[in-house]
Amino acid sequence: MIVLGIETSCDETAVALVDDRRHVRADLVLSQLAEHRPYGGVVPEIAARSHLDHLDGLIRRAMAEADLGFDQIDGVAVTGGPGLIGGIIVGVMTAKAIAAVRGLPFVAVNHLEGHALTVRLTDDLAFPYLLLLVSGGHCQLLMVEGVGRYRRLGTTVDDAAGEAFDKAAKLVGLGYPGGPAVEQAAARATEHDGDRFSLPRPMVGRPGCDFSFSGLKTALRQRVAAITAAAPDGRLSDRDRDALAAAFQTAVADCLADRTANAIRLVHADGPAPTARPTALVVAGGVAANRTLRARLEQVAAAGGLRLVAPPLRLCTDNAAMIAWAGLERLRQGGRDDLDFAPRPRWPLDPAAPKATGAGVKA
Ligand code: KG4
Ligand code: ZN
After folding, report:
1. What is the Å distance from ligand 1's center to 183 Cα?
2. Whose CA is nearest to atom 18 of ligand 1?
3. CA 281, 285, 289 angle in degrees (round to 5)?
4. Helix, strand, or coil here: 145?
5. In angstroms, what is the span from residue 288 Cα to ligand 1's centroid?
6. DSSP notation for 214-247
């Protein structure tokens, strides 16, 4: 079985071909970073137009690279949501057109499901496993129990982890996207400087698995304001900027580690049967690239008797191989969608999950 995957829900136009022997036949990602950088973030209208301009050509290229014709593929999978609606419409309409013309099954994949199932493509991981999904748009802890079976243990009450990195970078005068810039700045801080500033760790020590980053962001803003107000030139020195980046990164890693440790305790406690216990802790999403975070998660996983599995970076950030693979898993189980599927800007993986609480958000 070979499935064509299409991803257009944010600022990457991506097309991939994946088969049921877990081979990635083609995997193309066209980043729109340069188009959005002048605005310091993703502009939905620019993103949608850019997907429209590039998607057809990218599909043609992927098919050529994999040396496949449409008569050799068994289904078309596309991100049906959640994400920026303009981009999702472009992807979904294109996928439907191919499916209709070629008489192929059409599968609308939840973008989060793509991230959640990637480790089955890369590592052949068995269900169930615990997933920490940390990207620019999402920050969730999920038990992945099977295809289409996700139990959300926690989510953010305000910002996603990657969004917090992006905002922190802006506050200290680093570029976009913020995550890699903050990590590089933190690496430049000396050991002494790295501990010079201490920032709060929202939710740490509290029960549950929800996240919050807005208090941390405010604390960082106040620190920057205090330092620049006292500086003769009113500016943040490079040394202070790097030290603040290090403090911020450690604080986020501590928050994510604390909530993940709670999640491990929770799933061990409610899964006395060995089959209900997670086989691994999985981390995915763009923030999973962060080495300080990975090191903290290694510790948390080991303490909880789990191994840490992280897909290679290319498949951690947004891509279409994960969408093709999730579509393939759904197709293998006999699942497919009708051509009247409507794109969904919002689409929770676990609609039954309780609302996130804490840090000022009440139940
Ligand atoms: O998964 P992704 O590529 O796109 C979304 O679905 O959002 O994640 C992008 C996010 C951005 O917020 C970016 O700042 C963050 O991941 N990121 C990082 C690092 N690399 C990317 N955050 C922290 N450390 C990094 N090294
Ligand atoms: Zn994503």
Report:
1. 11
2. 179
3. 85
4. strand
5. 8
6. HHHHHHHHHHHHHHHHHSTTSS--HHHHHHHHHH
Q: Is domain 126-313 given the CATH code 3.10.300.10 in the classification?
A: no
Q: The domain 2-120+315-332 belongs to what CATH superfamily?
A: ATPase, nucleotide binding domain (3.30.420.40)
How many of the other CB atoms lie within 10 Å of CB of 302? Answer: 12
Which of 37, 79, 110, 135 is the pocket-test mutation for ligand 1 (most atoms within 8 Å of CB)? 135
Of ligand 1's listed atoms, the one at least distance from the Cα of 163 is 12
Mutate to test the pocket of ligand 1, among 159, 165, 248 (most ligand atoms within 8 A of CB): 165
Is there a common fold for 2-120+315-332 and 126-313? yes
Report how far residue 12's alpha carbon sits from residue 33's, in angstroms, rounded to the nearest whole number: 8
Q: Which atom of ligand 1 is nearest to the CA of 284?
A: 1
Using CA atoms, how far apart are residues 245 and 266, in angstroms rounded to an integer?
Answer: 32
List the domain boundaries for the chain. Answer: 2-120+315-332, 126-313
Distance CA 218, CA 224 (A): 10
Q: Say if CB 171 and CB 40 are below 8 A apart.
A: no
Q: Angle formed by the axes of helices 161-172 and 178-188, to 10°?
A: 60
pLDDT per residue as tens, the chain (363 positions): 999 999 999 999 999 999 999 999 999 999 998 999 888 888 999 999 999 999 999 999 999 999 999 999 999 999 999 999 999 999 999 999 999 999 999 999 999 999 999 999 999 999 999 999 999 989 999 999 999 999 999 999 999 999 999 999 999 999 888 999 999 999 999 888 888 999 999 999 999 999 999 999 999 999 999 999 999 999 999 999 999 999 999 999 999 999 999 999 999 876 666 667 899 999 999 999 999 999 999 999 999 999 999 999 899 999 999 999 999 999 999 999 999 999 999 999 988 888 887 665 554
Which ligand is closest in space to the CA of residue 42?
1
Give me 257's structure tokens: 């580690």
DSSP code at position 203: T
Residue whose pair of structure tokens reads 């450690």 in the numeric block: 250
